[in-house]
Structures are given as C-alpha cells and as structure tokens.
Amino acid sequence: MPKPKQQWLPAEKVDPDFFQRPSKKSRAIVIKSPDGKAVTAQKHCASSDGGTPDEKASNDLGRIQSGLDEATARRSTAPRPPLPIGPVAKTVASTRTRVAIENPSLHQSTPSANGLPITHPTGLSTGNTPPHSGQTPNTNRVTAFHSNLDIHALNYVQYWLRAVNESAAVSIPAPFLPRVDFSNYRRTLVVVEDTQDRTPLADLPPQQACTIQIQELQSTSYEQYWQQRLQNEYAAQAMQNDSFGLFNVGIYSHDHLTNSYSIKVPGVRESTPRIDIGDILYIRPILPVHPSMIARLSKEWSSQRSSVAPGFTGHEHHAVVWAVLRRDETVIVRLGTNLISGTKCNVIIPLSAHKFVPTWQAVSLAQVNLNATLSGNPWLTSMLFPEPDHGTLQTSLSKGSFDLEWFDSTLNFEQKRAVQAVTDADYGSIPYLIFGPPGTGKTKTIVETVLQLLQAPSRVAPHLLVCAPSDAAVDTLLVRLSAHLLPHDLFRLNSWTRLNSEVPGEVRPYCYLDAHNLYSLPPFERLMAAKVVVTSCRDADMLAAAGLTNQALTRTVLRMLRAIAPAAADSGDLLHWTALLLDEAAQATEPETLIPLGVVAPLEVDYELTLTPQMIMAGDEYQLGPRLASAAISDTSGTFNTPGLETSLFQRLFSRPLYKDHPLSRTRGLRPLTKAMLPIVRPPFANLIRNYRSHPAILSTSSALFYSDTLIPERPRASSAILSWPQWPKHSGSVWPVMFYQHTGLDSVESVLEGNGTGSGSLINHSEAQIALGTVVDLLRHVNRGSLAAILNPQSRNDHLQHEDIIVMSPFRAQVNYLRQIFREKGLYDIRIGPLEAFQGLESRVVVLCTTRTRLGQAPHPTVKYVNEDKARNLGVIDEPKRFNVAMTRAKEALIAIGNAEVLSCTRDNCWVSFLRFCLRNGLCCGGKMGWVARKDNAGRAKERMGKLERALRYADAQAAEREEDGTPLDARTNGNVVHEGQQQNFKLKLRGTMIDLDEEMWRMQIGEQEEEKIREEEDVGGDEIYDDDQEDWDGGDDT
C-alpha cells in the first residue's frame, strides 16, 4: 500500500502536542495513520531485522517521519525498546565521571601485560533501559499523534561508538604543559609550609552526586554544608562535560615533530565546553570496520566484554591541550605518540582537577579558620556571619562634606560617601557592601576606593587584593587603575591556563610571562612590592598555593623574629594584605569568594592582632548570579540538588538583619538619617541610586520592580535621530524609546538529531528573527539617512548609529545562532548577537530582545506546558527575574522587545506582567493583538501603581501638552518637553533632554499632594480599562 502523503497545516493551526519533525521551515509535519487514527512511536521500534535495538530504531526513524503503512497501524504487544532518539539514561551510575588530574601518579589504573596502564572508565548507559516510562497509549482514539520523544534529549549515538568509550584501554600519556611549581616557589622563599589546610588531590571527592543532609548554614558545619553542594556541582559539571564528548571525529596533524594534532570542538568558542590550555582530553582512535559487521560484533561484545570493543584500537591517548583557537573552534593537543592524520576517534572531555580544587580547598580552610575564631579574634566569623554587635554605633549626624582629594571629579554624592566610609573604616570589622544597580558606577566607585586606600594614613604600607569573578571584569578594573598607577605598583595575576591572545594589549605590561611564554607568578620581590594585585577569584588560589597568604607570611616572619628579635614579634602589625576589594561580587558563588578571602584572612592563632584587613564588596543581587552546571542541566529528579550555591555571599550578607533591617537600607525607602534615629549602628553599606546609562522610560520598570523605585536617571538627552524613528508606537507627548512588538509566529525545534549535544537550547523562531533583522535594518537606515550601502558603512558622526552600538539577544542558543546567520548574510557583521548571560555588565545604545518562546499548550485550554519545560531546564526569560532585569537594563537609548504577551504572562510572572502593563498604559505596543490574561492577587483584580519615573514622564508630557495648547514655544532639543521657566519653576522639575532627576523628596516638592492625587485618579481610570471586572481576558486590539 502506498505511503500516505504528508499533511501540511498552517503554523497557527498546528496542534502543539502533535509529533513534529524538526525542520528548517516554519511549518511542521503532522503525522497521522491512513485512517486518521493516532499512531504511537513504539509501534515502529520492534523489528525482526538484525542489528542492535538502537540501530533498528535509527533505521525506522525515516518511516516514522515520512508516514506509516497500514500494517504498522496494529497495536504492538512486544516489549517497549528504546526510542529512536531517546536520551542516554541520566543516572549517576551511568554518567562518565572521569577527572583529569595533572599528577599522573594519582590516576587510577592497572598495569597490562606490557607494563602500560589500563584505564577502566566507569560504565556509560548502553541504551537498554527505556528512557521513558508509562503505559501504551490507546490507539483506538481518533486524536492527534502524541509523541514520547524528548526534544531536549541527548544526541543519538550508535551503540558501537558508545561501546568504544566503555571498553578497557591502555593509557598513553603525553608531555605535560609546563606550569608553576608552587612547592619549589615556597621553598625558595623559606615560607613555612602551610599545606596542612590544603586538601591533597587524592582526598578529593568522587565526581558522584550525594544527598544533601545539612540544610542550614552555620559556622560549626560550614565545611560540610558547602562540600555537599560542591560535590553535586562537580558531578553536574562532569555530566555536562560528558555530554560535550565527540564521536567519530577526525584528528589531523598540526606539527608532526612535536606530535601536535588539531581537533574541531563545536561550541568551544562560547565555552560549551570550556577548554583551556593544560586540560587533558582522552582520545580513543577507531578502526575502520565495515558497517555490516560492526552491529553483529558489538552485540557479541556487549554480552561478554572480555576484550576490547570492536572498532576500537584499545589505546587511550591522554592528550594535553597546548592551544585553543576559539574563533575557529579548534583545539591543538599534543600526544605521546604518532597518529595518522585524519584518524577517526572518540574524544572524552573529563573534568579538570584544577577547575574545582580551589573551591574545595577554600571551604576546608574556611572551616579551620572559623574553628580558630572560637578562641581567638573572630575576624572570619564577622566576615561570614556579621551581627549588629560587630558594628559600631553612630551617635552624631555625619557632616555634609568630604575631606578627600578625589582622583575622579565626576563622582556623585552617594559614590563619595561610600569611598569616605571605607577610608574612615569606622563601621566595624565587618564587610562593607556597595549595592549598585545597573549603570550606577559600581566599578568607578571601587577604583576610587582603591586609590584612596593607597593614600590613607596607616601603620603599615597598604597592599590591596582586587578581585572579580571573570577575567573580563578584572581586565576592566586594571585598565581603569592603570591610568593612575605604574606597572611596578600594579600587577595583573593571570592563571597559567590563560591564552596570551585573550589578554588585551593594554593589560599585558602589567602581567608576567615565564620562560615558557606562559602566565605565571613573578619573582617574590616583584609581587610583594606591588601595591595592588588584580586577579580573578579563582586565580587568587595561585597566591594560596605559593604560600603568599597573610597567614603563611605571618607565620614565616614570626618564626624568624621570635628567633632574632622577640620583642618585635609582638607588634601586632604583621599584615601584608590590608584589604580585599571584590567587584561584581553577586556573580560569584560563596565558595569562590572564599578563595581570595582566605588569602587576606589574618593569623588568629598564637598571635594577637591590632590591625585587621578590610573587605569591600560591590554588586547587584538582582542581576544574574553565579553560573552553575547543576542549574543548566535537566535534573527533574533532584539528583544534582545544590540549594544555596546559587546565592552569592554578597546576596546572603544583604539578607542578614544587620543589612536588611537597617533603618537606612534600600528596602526601607532610603530614608534620610535624622537626630531622632540616633544612636544607630553605622551603616556598613552604600546604596548607589543615580543611573548614568538609560532613558527613564527604559529604566522605569526595573526601578519599580527591583530597586524600591529609588533609581534616578542622570544620562544626557537621547539622540534625536533615534527618537525621530517613525516606527516608535504612537504616543501622546514625547517619544518614549521603548517598544513591545506583539508576535505570535510559532517557535519550532531546530536540529533534534544534530543539536549541541544536550538538546537544550534548540528552540528557534524564524519569523521572530526576521522581525529583529527588519527592525535593525530599518532603524539603521533611518538614523544613517541612507541606502543599504550607507548602513553597512556608517559615518562616525554622533547621530549616526554604528553596528557595534546594537545588541540583539535571545535566551535560546539555537536562536542566537540563527540570528547571527541571517544578520551576517546581510553584511551586518558587527552587530553584537548573543545569549543574555553574555551581556551582563555591558551596555549598548540599542537593544533588541528576542524572547523566542511563543507557543503555549493545546487549545482550547492553553497551558504552560512548554514554558514549564523551559523553566525545568533553566531556559527562557519567563519566571527568571534576574535574566529579565539584565535584559531590560542593557539599553541606553532604545529598547525593543519581541514576544507573545500571552505566553510571557501565562505564569503570571510579575516582571513581564508589569512591563506589559507599562507598555499598554503608555501606548508602547505594536504588532498583533494583545490578548493576555490579567494577573490576580489575593485582593482580586490588581491595580498596580505607576512607578515614580513613569509618573514623572507622564507629568512632563502633560505639562508639555498644556504649554503647546497655550502657544508657548518648545525647546527642540528636549524633544517636545517644555523649558521650565516662570511659574513652572515652582515645580522645580529638572529635565535633561528627556532625562529626569527625581527622588521621593523632590517629587513632593515638585508636584504636591493635589497633583499627585490627580495622577493617581487617572491611574485608576486606566486600571479599570485594562482590568474589566466583567471579563476574564482583556484584548487591547489595535487601540494599544
């Protein structure tokens, strides 16, 4: 009987629960049996042909996708075999958990007959366990096809290739990359050995998940609390690395004299996987075997496993990475022997020990120091568990002026107050936290603090350790500090695994390269002479490994002084690192922060301190936090549970009563200090409130949602060329450069069979990408006032929009790749396109946010099925407040969001509901109809009050309209906003182009109670229009 024809349906009519074949087209293929009845996947898995079950399923996949014949419509009674593209079972027992340890003697192996070690990897699932469970669906129902296939499944890999990785092998080592010999470094400095607190590599935890037993973080069980979570995170990293493994790829000769070879590693450009020089890759060469024989041989081997797997040479090369060409996604490795160029092989990417050893050892050292504080000076306890009695009391009001000579004259009042507080150091021996929302100048404040601490009077010469979680953030700090410090006073410590090509040219004069042209520790005298050492949190472990911590150095000096000059040993001033400053602190896990904290921690045993180091942290707990493998992988079973690890030390400290419940905290409305409040614990924190980045309309939603409505826009006026773009939604008054484009074109799944190895992030939306491309091209054409040639080669005038001034972002990696493809095809190579996480800490004149997910569940009762799947895999921007905040606060002059309002609000996500309501109230929507469900709260229909920035913008527009009716001239530079003079000065409303400088006290002076009440009455009218009590859904239609 001939196969049925494929049934094509328009995208908007496709049942989302149908089985859909991955296609690069916007339509999906709906599979039905000839009689219209439902067909189940398992009917096609049973086969009487030869070969393994996986290969049968692979051969049958074409029949499943192209249609079914009448004979396969019968209900199958055979046991259910693995699905054709089902995932390898994600259990801890079946996960390869191999760790690459730099010391070959620690690698567990058994000798073979010829003396070479035989490696026995842990088992990988053979696919014999069905990845899904459940009863066989009833095929008598006349319904659509419901697939059990998992679009987020791992790539399908033939069993014989997986068998190669499961087989025992003879290990062939390769020459290791030269690196710092920390033991020799300590011996040459006569540093007292301080290794009792550093966990030996042999005692590191197995890369296997454990059960979380300790739920509460306390000083007495601090080590156990974090080690249980770190062990699960390491297991998740090992599993993630396992998913990045390569099968049947070519390895090509790069330099036959040094046995160097090149391997293409997809994703290495974006650190998926993260591979650095010095890492070890396990290379397993494959023999050329005829396909007709491999299935039978693999089946026979799987039953016995007494020999080497068929198709495998039996050798595992421990290849050492000597270079990484990220742009070309190529890795250069060195082997211990020769291979024929072009040899096919499997590549296993183990978890390198040097990537997790520092955090494990830092936690152990922290527990040792916490135990020591029970009988000594409680410095570390006050840093990790500060209490109000650790602070100092303020009994008088602070003076309104500052007595410092500023290196940066552009600092605002809040920044100066923070710097003054740190230099005065009168808040107690506790962390000083600088809370800086986006664009408020956190890094500028840290840089000024560093320079002022170097000038502040002190009993000892200041030596500062300045850190950040990422190399990019550290390089930014160094570049800013280099404008004031010479190379002998400022040093950039890089890991030996960092590529020279990844270090900016202006940073290199402040670094040190060893004889092997690798970054390393400089000579002892050079490092100790530096007033400021800048490094990443993880690379600070190099100082600990070399014995250059406060504790190790103090022990060394004490031993000598007590033998030579006992009286000098009791001074109490033996302290090298006088302060630790941590920028972007909210992006680091607490164990990562412990690494530099352990470097500056003072000696508290057998020594009485009279001087303790300071710790200053700057960050924003409402932006993206630490990036965890346990959050990135799909783990619905809770195997890789790491509660608390996603919370940075910065965020945890701000949740403690000392900071959270302080009368001057941001959550209390930033009330001014009065005499009636004295005495009071001197605030060990600063709140930066002035935003120098964004237009107030862009800033309004985030200010109200995350920062207690306290942000004050300070940026100069927006570009008139951008504001005059005719595509901005029609709005009464001045142009607000914010747009929500309602788009309902359905998303689809790209490359289920050829994805990124994990299947996650494979969501793509072709029509959304075309909208983003058209929007950017049209904006460029308007601003640059020219043809496509002018767009591709814009001039450098201020009003012209450069390609690098535009960011296009999406939370889904496949969509990012597709956006890059279509933008490059148009010659727009310099448009910055990437995932949301890539742009934290960055800014751009124009930002286009592609939300990508536009599909709900099956009609007529829409569900959140697909949104919940995204949330389970830590994907998307729905119910992700930190991602939402980062996406909304990157833009300086224009923000364009593309998405489906119904999907974005389907879970009643407060962030998206607030933003959509902001756009609806102010006529900032375009595209299709806005039929979305209003959010409910316990009191019924919610009528959200407008934020202060929105109210000020609306008030300014109203005043401009009144002046226009009266015939009063308008200043063209303010884009329609009035020039306040005469009676308008009574309001004292300060307009900077379209920027408004405003806070609560100014608001009361500007408008007064009567005007404020009038605006609130207008809000209520608008709220009734949006939330009609007689209808469940509100449809804005074209009126928006």
TrEMBL record:
InterPro entries: DNA2/NAM7-like (IPR045055), DNA2/NAM7-like_C (IPR041679), DNA2/NAM7_AAA_11 (IPR041677), P-loop_NTPase (IPR027417), SF1_C_Upf1 (IPR047187). Residues 1018-1040 have a biased composition (Acidic residues). It comes from the Eukaryota. Residues 685-901 form the DNA2/NAM7 helicase-like C-terminal domain. Keywords: ATP-binding, Helicase, Hydrolase, Nucleotide-binding. Residues 122-141 have a biased composition (Polar residues). Residues 411-483 form the DNA2/NAM7 helicase helicase domain. Residues 1-61, 71-90, 102-141, 1007-1040 are annotated as: Disordered. This is RNA helicase. It comes from Lithohypha guttulata.
